[in-house]
Design brief:
Elements (H helix, E strand, L loop, with lengths): L2 H21 L11 H18 L5 H30 L6 H33 L1
Length: about 130
């Protein structure tokens, strides 16, 4: 068993599951979405992105691209949250929360693409 591949898969799956945990709940209800869960999803997604820089294949390039998309979506969600709370003073209105969760949903799709590609690549390696 290759420890590097285990860590690689671990962080890709963890990024997906943390993002899903944040995404789950009513779109416009701030009580259903924890800021620390968004932060954890962002940090793990960034770690997964760094791990993908070592891949030199076409699949690796697609994995990196999907990870960068997830990072961009999660960073934007965090910026919207911070701006609503600390810059504009608007707070977490239903409209702001819906925007944050929608951005997280985009990152969730990108993470799902990464996991799907990883599973396909793993299955093809077995043959």
């Amino acid at each position: 068993m290759n420890l590097e591949r285990v860590l690689f898969g671990f962080f890709i799956l963890l990024a997906l599951t943390l993002n899903f945990g944040f995404f789950l709940g009513d779109f416009d209800e701030p009580a259903h979405h924890n800021v620390f869960e968004l932060y954890a999803a962002l940090v793990v997604s960034l770690i997964a992105t760094v791990l993908k820089f070592g891949e030199r294949t076409q699949i690796g390039a697609i994995l990196l691209a999907s990870s960068l998309v997830a990072d961009l979506q999660l960073i934007t969600a965090a910026v919207v949250w911070a701006a609503a709370e600390h810059v504009t003073g608007v707070g977490l209105t239903p409209a702001v929360m819906a925007s944050i969760v929608s951005l997280s949903g985009g990152a969730l799709l990108a993470n799902l693409a990464s996991v799907t590609i990883l599973i396909i690549e793993t299955v093809n390696m077995q043959r």
